Amino acid sequence: MSETPLLDQIPDGPWPSFVKEIKKTAELQDKAVAEGKDIKMPGSARALLKQIEISYKDKKTHWKHGGIVSVVGYGGGVIGRYSDLEDIVPEVHHFHTIRVNMPSGWFYSTKALRQLMDVWEKWGSGITNFHGSTGDIILLGTKSEYLQPCFEDMMKLDPPFDIGGSGSDLRTPSACMGPALCEFACYDTLQICHDITMEFQNELHRPMWPYKFKFKFSGCPNDCVAAKARADCAVIGTWKGEIQIDQDAVKEYAEWMDIEEEVVKLCPTGAISYDAEKKEIKIDNSNCVRCMHCINKMPKALKPGKERGATVLIGAKAPFVEGAIIGWVAVPFIPADELFDTLCEIAEKIWEWWDDIGKFRERVGELIWRRGIGEFLNVIGQEADVRMIKHPRTNPFMFFKEEELVESEVVKKLKERGMKWRSFEYEGEEI
Amino acid sequence: MQQQEKPPWWKTDFGPPYFKDLMHPVLKKNYGKWAYHEVIRPGVIKRVAESGDVVYVVRFGTPRLISIYTIRELCDIADKYCDGYLRWTSRHNVEFILTDESKIDDLIKEVEEKVGFPCGGTWDTPKGKYGLTNIIHTQGWIHCHTPAIDASGIVKAIMDELYEYFVDMKLPGLCRISLACCANMCGAVHASDISIVGIHRTPPLVDDDAVRRMCELPSTAAACPTAAIKVKAKEKTLEVDGEKCMYCGNCYTMCPGMPLFDPENDGAAILCAGKVSDARHPPELSKVVVPWVPNEPPRWPTLVEKIKQIFMAWANNAKKHERMVEFIERIGWERFFELAGLEFSWHLIDDFRIPPFMYASYRVGTQFRW
């Protein structure tokens, strides 16, 4: 009888099966060992299968909290993981994950990939994730003592592969395919992602903050990397000025597309009109909110305007702990050519503030919520803009700065009588 | 570790490979100069550059967990058809970039037969025909220490059920499905058309001995969002007010002495009607529509059935281009629960403190007038 009766039911159905992938790894790993290849984790894929079968029977995980494991000179990038079934599956008792920083946009040459796979065949389980949720290549499972030699082999490759982020550090930045393949890209997502990753290598590799911080780069408001929902700093391509229209291409679409029904009526602000006789469209750009619907519908006929740049949304995060946040508008528009410098400047100001007053495991979005966006705008040196809000506040409980007030005789006299906000001093404080 | 003389090849902080060095020459040549695209059949996107160059991007779904031996097979195919280049998408799909249209059929046949990955996962917005793309998901029982559910097994069961929508383009709009195996949400699934989140339902049981050995008491207590954990300083341990606990597991993340696994009561909540794109409707968080379904490995029949009900309620009734949130806002929640055959219960009425997203009048998304 099979050792894995429950997992054997998984390959049923047409969708590719992870169990098949693990079994394949186990078989080919055994074969490689038999051929005399230098394999450091023999039997690990088979043992993983065995452990997952037990999880399927018990309906619970059998992985324990990881300890601190890493490679020389780094603090993050390796996730420690231990099995609580070490007697049954000693091959995966230590089963640490290495996060490998992927190239921007997940573009690979087969040469680079094959080399990395060779390293992982030797030093690890032979199992990977392409890719982890944040975007890294995940090398799934090796022992503590193999982490360092595995990384050393990675640094000797051509091109070498470096380690990504984990813990309370800058997580590996990720970007959509941008200008490499897409006509919607309003800035060079791939280059900025690479440049930001290179600029902040220390922040990426050495956890030192209250919690994690993520950058994600999407070339247009379609947001193919879901930056708005999960990046502390989401950079979303957009434009000012007029949508570029090619009326000849509009006529081509008009041959088979119901432009009135599917473009005009679905524009959220009613900014488009269509002349069915001339087969031409007109856009009231002052009323366009750059949502992308019409451009998605007619990519051949419509292009984002020529004045391009990005919006920065800050604070997105999953529900842990205060509740989920979709990124808030922090800078409505940064011209594309100023993007890198501005992002570096904003990021460093945020990190300093957050490092100073953030609580342990408090994301930037939660800190903004706790302290208010007014303070946050001061921190990043950004003027208030009506585009930062859905609507103005509904309560009159505002803070005013001293310089906004004028001195009145009444208050002056009260102060002269010795009245003040409080009659005691805090230690070291000037009143 | 002892400081030793480093060998000449030693380096740190050298960063990822430069993407342009790993990019097909035709993409480098036309970088930033793409004119338009068309989806010529499910899984195949034709991209035309201003220079007149044309590439065919052929997309395949993967199980995310991939063997190095499978990667080598994908490399063999990329060497044969695509001059040695390939890429992955942000949703675990692998893409081959062809310059020769006549090779599309052979490429698809070879990937499907040799590797077993299906071609699809695309949508044709101009024509209003949408395919389902891959499910973003987390590690689950394969590698996570806090999950309430498995990840890969559930994804497999759901995608088997919805397979026909991946390989074809017969949906009214985009539908993003995501799964996170606990509320920590490594997958950040909280803004998806349909999301599945592993939840625990019993408060952590304090293992005094483990707490004393491994945990910092004040920071563990402070990690509780509902102040359900108190420090018992004299006894050097913690106590949990079970009435206040909503089983988020944040304390267990902080402290291994607070396990909250309960195989018969752990399970999944199902959320829907979130999105991140600004197209038409601004970004939106997903909402819980099914409070709990049990863990039923290896095929999770109840969970799959509920997902199918939600999915089909939308697929059969949405107007062209309408995503889940737009659809539900049009028909109303009461009609949605009716159409999807879901029961509305008290669990679905929010009684957590007001979360930041709801509290703030801060704008989300990028819909601006200039």
Report on this structure.
Chain A is of the alpha+beta class and 431 residues long. In chain A, 32% of the residues lie in helices and 15% in strands. In chain A, helix 7 links the parallel strand 9 (215-218) and strand 10. In chain A, helix 1 (18-34) packs antiparallel against helix 2 (44-58). Chain B has 370 residues and is an alpha+beta fold. Chain B has eleven helices and 14 strands. In chain B, the strands form four sheets. A five-stranded antiparallel sheet of chain B has the order 1-2-3-6-5, covered by helices on one side. Chain B has a four-stranded mixed sheet with strand order 9-10-13-14, covered by helices on one side. In chain B, a hairpin with a 2-residue loop joins strand 1 (34-41) and strand 2 (44-49). The chains are: A alpha+beta (431), B alpha+beta (370).
Tell me the helix content of chain A.
Answer: 25-40%
Residue fraction in strands of chain B:
15-25%
* End-to-end distance of chain B: 57 Å
Give the CA-based shape of chain A: globular
> Which chains make the largest contact?
A-B, 157 and 139 residues
Alpha plus pi helix count of chain A: 14
**% residues in beta strands of chain A:** 15-25%
Q: Which stretches of chain A are poorly predicted, pLDDT < 50 over at least 5 residues?
A: none
The protein's oligomeric status is: heterodimer
Output the strand order for the largest sheet of chain B: 1-2-3-6-5
Cα radius of gyration of chain B in angstroms: 24 Å
